[in-house]
Write a structure and sequence with these properties.
- It contains 6 helices and 20 strands.
- By secondary structure, the chain is of the alpha+beta class.
């Protein structure tokens, strides 16, 4: 009876020991603790009745790395069960297989959650670039390496990129990344923040990115706005390239914006310096001044008196004689005397006359000529114009 009791208690003890041991199966991934290392293998305590063994070629992809550079006694690592019994009573383990599966599981989670992470471009190949995530090879197509067009991919070699996974097939270990999608998302977030912060009348610094006939486009940091030709300067501008060049950093005014139509109107000229604000103080009806012809139309000529101040000489105010074609008597760029006939500050209009300005000179000459016989016309002009002041 006593022998039976002892046998029973021994069996019970064995059962208890077996219960306390981890059950392991081929294909399991479990955590173990490194007990010892040698030149060719690593002994790992996996909580089983016998310890597991990792051969050097199951530690990592590269066999050139020394074991002691990868693990040391006391390290806790995940291992994959290759064999429960290799025929000699050993449990064969693989760290590189466990690492690969763990990494694929991590990448699968990244893919499902649209997570952004960082990779380093290690190689440029046909059609794109390669990056490795904990030993897993990933591919970045050329069209997804940047939001902008990239002509030479080698400029991205050894460069860190923020990416997200756009294609993932776990059983084929296929992982396709995109830096473009991350940049696109960042740009969209910047745009949203910028739209919220825009205020009419405020100043913003931007960069000239494109020049067209009707104005210049300026990047404000994610949103492009247009400086129309008329808002470049108070003086008349025929071509934006007279004032700006692509790449210029400029300070602009926010004139208006409409998020729904994605339009922002900008101004380069300072509103506070509008010459029409003081037009009535600086210009008087009846005054004769000298200006420059800046534009010819069928109905008359525009004459610039000062930057931002222009007036119209109607075709009937060109000469006492009938004028059929303006370009027969006037040329853009000509300097001419004009008389101010009317000023409309509210409508920013000024009426000018060339013939009235000429009549004043002629009248003065006639009066002088009646009194000063014997003088040449040159003498009369020279003497008379000393006392006649033309306003500028």
């Amino acid at each position: 009876m006593e022998n039976n009791k002892e046998e029973l208690s021994m069996n019970e003890m064995i059962n208890e020991i077996e219960k306390s041991m981890t059950k392991v199966y081929v294909g399991d991934i479990i955590k173990g603790k490194v007990i010892s290392i040698s030149q060719n293998e690593v002994l790992v305590n996996i909580g089983y009745m016998i310890d597991g063994v990792i051969s050097k070629n199951e530690l990592c992809e590269s066999e050139e790395i020394e074991i002691q550079d990868l693990v040391k006694p006391g390290d806790e690592i995940y291992v994959y069960i290759l064999k429960v019994n290799d025929g000699e009573g050993n449990v064969c383990l693989s760290k590189k297989m466990a690492d690969k599966i763990k990494t694929l599981e991590k990448l699968e989670e990244y893919f499902k959650n649209d997570k952004i992470f960082t990779v380093n471009v290690s190689e440029v190949v046909k059609g794109g670039a390669l990056a490795f995530v904990d030993g897993i090879r990933t591919f970045i197509p050329a069209s997804h390496i940047s939001y902008s067009f990239v002509k030479n991919l080698t400029s991205y070699l050894n460069k860190d990129l923020k990416v997200k996974i756009i294609e993932f097939v776990k059983d084929k270990e296929k992982v396709v990344l995109s830096a473009k999608e991350v940049e696109k998302e960042e740009i969209e977030n910047k745009k949203k923040a910028l739209w919220k912060s825009l205020k009419r009348g405020e100043k913003r610094r931007g960069k000239v990115v494109k020049i067209v006939k009707f104005g210049a486009f300026v990047d404000l940091g994610g949103i492009q706005g247009l400086i129309h030709l008329n808002d470049l300067s108070w003086k008349r501008v025929n071509n934006p390239s007279e004032i700006l060049s692509v790449g210029d950093s400029v300070e602009v005014y926010i004139i208006d914006f409409d998020k729904d139509s994605n339009r922002v109107s900008l101004g380069l000229k300072d509103v506070s310096e509008d010459p029409w604000n003081s037009v009535e103080q600086n210009y008087k009806v009846g005054s004769v001044l000298e200006g420059t012809i800046v534009k010819l139309m069928d109905f008359g000529a525009f004459v610039e008196l000062k930057d931002g101040i222009e007036g119209l000489v109607h075709i009937n105010e060109i000469s006492e004689e009938r004028v059929l074609k303006l370009d027969d008597v006037l040329k853009v760029g000509d300097r001419t005397k004009v008389k101010i006939m009317d000023i409309d500050k509210k409508r920013r209009r000024m009426s000018l006359s060339i013939k009235e300005a000429n009549n004043i000179v002629v009248e003065q000459l006639n009066k002088y000529n009646d009194k000063e016989e014997g003088f040449t016309l040159g003498d009369i002009l020279k003497d008379k114009l000393k006392g006649f002041k033309f306003e500028e």
